[in-house]
Amino acid sequence: LNAKAKGKTREGAEEQLTTGDLLSNRKMFYLLKGAFPAVQINSEERVDTADQEAVSWDRSIPEDIKQKIQPKEVPAESVTVWIDPLDATQEYTEDLRQYVTTMVCVAVNGKPVIGVIHKPFSSYTAWAMVDGGSNVKARSSYNEKTPRIIVSRSHAGKVEQVARQTFGNKTVIIPAGGAGYKVLALLDVPEKNQEEADVYIHVTYIKKWDICAGNAVLRALGGHMTTLTGEEISYTGSDGNEGGLIASINMNHKALIEKLPDLEKTSHK
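Structure tokens predicted for inositol-phosphate phosphatase (269 residues):
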């Protein structure tokens, strides 16, 4: 792993950087940059131009995907790609591999339209394109009255207090690592190590490469990911989202937001 600290989060937690982060980042960045040189690519890890890697890619699209999507042309300058080469690095260093994903998101004019969430240790991949198909779907039912809420392992206590006040003491809080894993928890995912939840809530600052792919997948399936006050998250400009987030699918998203007014106050701390 060769894990080392690369800094601290706003909450003071140490951020880990591993060889896996760097190797995955190098491969993903140069593959995309070589194929689409005019497109803006934002990645969690810094790219060292002296360490450039030639990555070959024939650009052929698998037949099962080709049958589901409709190609669309957009100006290169309107496209931003967000990549997270290794989501849940902390859990990766703790050998909690079920939480680890790699993610790619394509945003057009700030709106997430293509999302890919890949679990490298089980080879499961979820992908979706807004108005273009997917290989994943929503579950058949969700509990709106006493939802199971999936949250960050490091912020579980903060969310639990407010959630129980809002939905009652029977509300189940699921602490988990990785934003990609948490989005998959809202969907019908045939993975034995994948927990299920009804709502995903994050109450502090979060980077856009952590959430763009999940946002795109949910949008494509008719779900929602917004700030805690219900604002759409724009994937242009700064690389951070200040307003926390709440994500759901096949639920009354607006009603959920109205039930959680106190959480927004904590999202900037």
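The first helix runs from residue 19 to 35.
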